[in-house]
Amino acid sequence: MLTKRIIPCLDIKDGRTVKGVNFEQIRDAGDPVELATIYAKEGADELVFLDITATNEKRKTLSELVNKIAHHINIPFTVGGGISSVEDVQLLLKNGADKISINTSAYKNPTLINQLALEFGTQCVVLAIDTKKEVDGNWYVYLNGGRVKTNTLCIDWAREAVERGAGEILLTSMNNDGTKQGFALDITHDLSTQLSVPIIASGGAGTMQHFSDVFEIAKADAALAASIFHFKEIAVPTLKSYLSNKGISIRI
Question: Among candidates 88, 92, 86, which has minimal Cα distance to 111?
């Protein structure tokens, strides 16, 4: 059985780690290099770095900061934000990223997924989807860091992306993000059971039980969290020990 992965996420704005609630009320959460170093030492399975304003500010991801973090960690490292070309990916991989995450640029130009999968392999391409459940009960895709709504259903876009070569889906529920009320189990379960690639659940982690639920009920392959780790509410080793004791396959 494949082990479930625990992934701390560094949301980066102006070179600092930040955290918000429902994609708003952003506050400082510390130095990204320091945090990355701690998580690697504590046994996190991977690390995700998202330059959250790169697309909106129409600029590239901070490759120098990526390079600095990469030199301090020895775990797989996914980087996203403002990536829109093969050249962007080459630069980030050269600076220490193992995988890249694309979001808005892929939605606006879906052939980008095909190009990147062909050039770097599907295992390198993570499609990030920011999704929100609307009053009609459906989950829709949002772009530009959650600022722009589309009329595309999350499951439809995820399916197309996998067909084009996305090797993994990073699924963030905007409704749950930062609330600490638990992950969005319904949409996570839909993607986990209907798609052939690993699903990383993101948005809503507040307790260790939430991780257990997203793995056992929603069938996620990995769970990503930010503030509970950044503000030392839950330590990675404690979480892994808890999950292991519940019989969930985890790398200790």
Answer: 86
Query: What confidence tens digit (pLDDT) does each residue in 189-211 have?
Result: 999 999 999 999 999 999 999 99
Share the mean pLDDT of the chain: 92
> Of these residues, 130, 177, 190, 213, which one is catalytic?
130
Active site residue 213: no
Check which CATH number belongs to the domain holding 230 and give it: 3.20.20.70
Number of folded domains in the chain? 1
Using alpha carbons only, how large is the chain's radius of gyration in Å? 16
Token pair recorded at residue 204: 């809503």
pTM of the complete model: 0.93
Q: Is 130 a catalytic residue?
A: yes
Report yes or no: 75 and 40 within 8 Å, Cβ to Cβ.
yes
**In whole angstroms, what is the distance from residue 109 CA to residue 222 CA?**
27
DSSP characters for 133-173? E-TTS-EEEEETTTTEEEEEEHHHHHHHHHHHT--EEEEEE
Instruction: To the nearest 10°, report the CA torsion of 162, 140, 228, 241.
Output: -40
Residue 60's domain spans which residues?
5-245
